[in-house]
Design brief:
mainly alpha; 8 helices; about 75% helix
């Protein structure tokens, strides 16, 4: 049993080292925030779509939703899917077109700064940090 944990730890640290090496080699050309945040606008539509899907379908979704068909029946996954489709269509139709005027903004803080000034940018940053800390504490 102890050998299994050792192999898992070795695999995990090997994966982290591989990520570090790939990031170091590929990141040498990154010199600006635009290069980092937007990959210099070099990502294709497929890469962006898979990233958004992976964000929506996180570990919580997989682990929590696996019980739903047992409790609610086979209709539960379809209801979730319809909800995600409706929200994606709504975002695409009403929200994303309004964000086009903020093409040079990289964060929510940048948008708030443009609309309301630097105090709003600082407040947004502090509230975002607090939210992240609370999410981490909630998972402990």
């Amino acid at each position: 049993m102890n050998d299994d944990k050792t192999y898992i730890l070795i695999s995990f640290f090997a994966f982290l080292c591989l990520n570090l090496i790939v990031g170091w080699v590929k990141g040498r050309n990154v010199t600006t925030l635009k290069d980092y945040a937007l990959a210099n606008r070099g990502l294709g539509t497929g890469s962006l779509m898979v990233t958004i899907i992976a964000t929506v379908i996180g570990a919580k979704y997989v682990t929590c939703r696996i019980v739903d068909p047992y409790e609610l029946g086979l209709i539960a996954p379809f209801i979730d899917s319809i909800g995600y489709m409706v929200s994606a269509l709504w975002l695409g139709r009403y929200v994303f077109p309004k964000l086009l005027r903020f093409k040079d903004c990289y964060t929510l803080g940048d948008i708030m700064c443009r609309l309301y000034g630097s105090n709003a940018q600082i407040t947004t940053g502090l509230l975002s940090a607090l939210t992240s800390i609370l999410f981490i504490v909630a998972q402990l």
